[in-house]
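re: ur question from earlier - yeah i can do the single chain one, its not a big deal. heres the input i used so u can compare w yours
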Amino acid sequence: MYGLQRFAPDEVLAAVSFGLLPTTRVEDHADYDVDGLGMVRDDDDDDDDDDDDDDAPVALLEFRDEERVLIFPPGVAEANGVVTAPVRAANWVERYTKLGTVLDVASLLRDVAALRGTELVLGQSEARLEPLRSRLHRLQQAYDTGLVLLADVDLAERTLRDEQMILAEHTAARAHTLRKIRHGWGAYFAEAAAERLPLLEALADRSRALVQVSLPEPLSGRGFHAEIQAGDAVRPAEPIGPGYAEIAGMGPDAMVLLAEGAGLRPGLRVEVTFHGTEGFESGFVLPTGAVLFHGDGIWAYRDLGDGRFHRLPLSGLRRLDRSWFVPKSVLAFDARVVIRGGQMLLAEEFRAEIMREDDD
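and the output i got, formated as tokens:
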């Protein structure tokens, strides 16, 4: 479970019972953020003492305005390791992480090179066809007037047919190569391969790279931006072509992202983070130590001041790296919460409740 803290040492409780109230310890500015950097961590030494011979609970439990309020004498909660901090406002932006793979573009480069060669031959053949047609037409007219032999006309017809066969063969080869590129790399490269020459050259020298990844379902048809992380380097990435890449074997949610290629060798697995760009939700970020899991509920203790604490139910929590996002409706902007020692407060609340029932 996240956020469970150890019970305070009994020798501290004993000191409190003899009227020795230590100095109050409250952190006014907890250093934590959305990414969990600088999180408040519980680094207290483990002092396990299972003897519990207190005759009465340190705290009292009162009900005010239908709220259970746990009340400590001044400084006692802090002396027992309770640390509080103001909540940190933040905005929740959808974020999803997927594993992607750097694609080997060698076959794409070969196919595009073959396509360019075929298109070059096609252009040359088409350029020869019109003069051959014109020559045949002139020879046929000359033959009708008896100026040339039939053999000259036949030779011109065969030459034209040969060129038409060359044109047909290379047209078929071009169509086959385009289908191959579309099947393997999507319409972005197949429909305008000649216009992608600068990009293809960048892919060839690995200054740019293509990454295959699946688009998170919640972002389907919505705006987003993506980042690729390989090692410690994070670089922006952009989708190739409009919408999904129609690539064989990748599924309907497949995408191909284009990114800076330094260090991205073919076959490398990389982490791709998608950030939604359409709207956000206001709320707060709580460190893991502020969130308590007990029974069927999720809780946090709010510091009401003067040694008073109220256990607040939490809902709509979303997990961050090393913290939790809480919607704005759950907490107030000026709230202070217990970020360390919440489990001790939970134990004291239950003990105070038992003593209260016994008194009744």
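Confidence is low (pLDDT under 50) at residues 1-57. not sure if urs matches, ping me
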